User: What shape does this take?
Amino acid sequence: MLLQSFPFFVAVQVNAYDDRGVLLGKWSKNLSDYSDGVLPTRWNGSVSILKRWSEGGTRPVRYGQCWVFAAVACTVLRCLGIPTRCITNFSSAHDNNGDLIIETEVDENDEEISRADIWNYHCWVESWMARKDLPDGYDGWQVLDSTPQEMSDGVFCCGPCPVRAIREGEVGMKYDAPFIFAEVNADITKWMVHKDKTRTKIYVDNWSVGRNISTKSVYGDKREDVTALYKYPEGSAKEREVFEKAGRRVSHQPDDNETQRPQLKLSIKNEEAVHGTDFDIIVEVQNVGNKEAGADLTIKSVAITYNSLHRGVCQSKTARLTVPAQKVHKEVLRLRYDHYGACVSEHHMIRVTASLKMNDQSDVIQTMANIQLKMPKLNIKVTGEAAVGQKVTAYITLKNPLPVTLKNGVFTVEGAGLTTATEIPVLAISLLSHSNAIQPGEEVTVKHSFKPMRYGMRKLLVDFDSDKLMDVKGETILMVRRKRYNWP
Assistant: This one.
């Protein structure tokens, strides 16, 4: 059996779609759909997942999403001695027809007819291996993806494919090179479908897919950017050459609505977006022409998941504008927690779309921005000397940042070589209310005692989830010394 076949089978085994694999995935708008398992954002590590799978008779563990599949695959491959690292691709495209273009359609009210499959981020792993089945020069990092997206050779898996092949546009390379190339290089096109079924191109983005491709640095808890390993600089001559090699049409005859440069330009800015507070969205309309221009502006904000599923409209606003020549008009939409708090997902993301329809023509231009809400941090304090087999206690404090009461709160504490995953409900620790509720502005503290099992630098991870506030993370580093023996 070829060496590259073994990581492939490991990657297939991580998801449960073709066999008795480790993880079952679920992507849902409704958080209650995860009630028969664990919300994917709650996991802190792979060990507890693999233990559940093993102790449960190899029944699939519920539930995972891309970062969970990648983490489990990384753990298993490393345990088997295969150098592996997790990769995160921001603005990741899912191209299921191979044309390297991700298209979406909306009606004249900007309601979706078909959705562009662009994930805010997507995770996979790379494994370092020799490729005796490929021409010389393709050894090294190979992409493997356990997330069940599309079938490859009859099973839900992607890769192994050389990273170098993606950068060079070698889409004929084994395995799944066209799909991976599109994840980091596809274009986005948005069309407005009119009542007479004609279409107007309102948004084109040929640069944002495949941004800040990242892995963890070997020199500490820092991000290492590996984008240059996957693609040449956007807009460079070499990038254009690679696109042509990959079969993408780089130059094209412009559509009728592209023949004239738009007189108005759109951009979106925002204040610091702290979860639980009200903040402003600023849409700037710039008139680059030599005469004033009128237009109808529509601003819409929707809560989304990391893979762009809509959870509901937060707020919207329309305005009729007249922008003087060479001037900028600023339109402000204040996003209020009373509105977005009811629909924001566990990924704490809001997508703002601004659409502009010119008064003297049928053209529509549009731009959008994803806003990540800033989350509170958990305060972790460890008392006692950290040594193997010696008791230490961690005190973890959360202050409710929201203007609403939090219910059914649960802290999850875990650390490799420190302590197994332990859940602590707020019911047992709330000192002020003596209930499972945390009032606005109230602080709660949980203590967790444990005896470290392994020496060296260790990380204690904590997660907090409740009905209104989820996926609050905290961590602290412990230097654990060896066990001290008292010889007679």
User: Anything to note?
Assistant: Residues 5-246 form a domain with the Coagulation Factor XIII; Chain A, domain 2 fold (CATH 3.90.260.10).
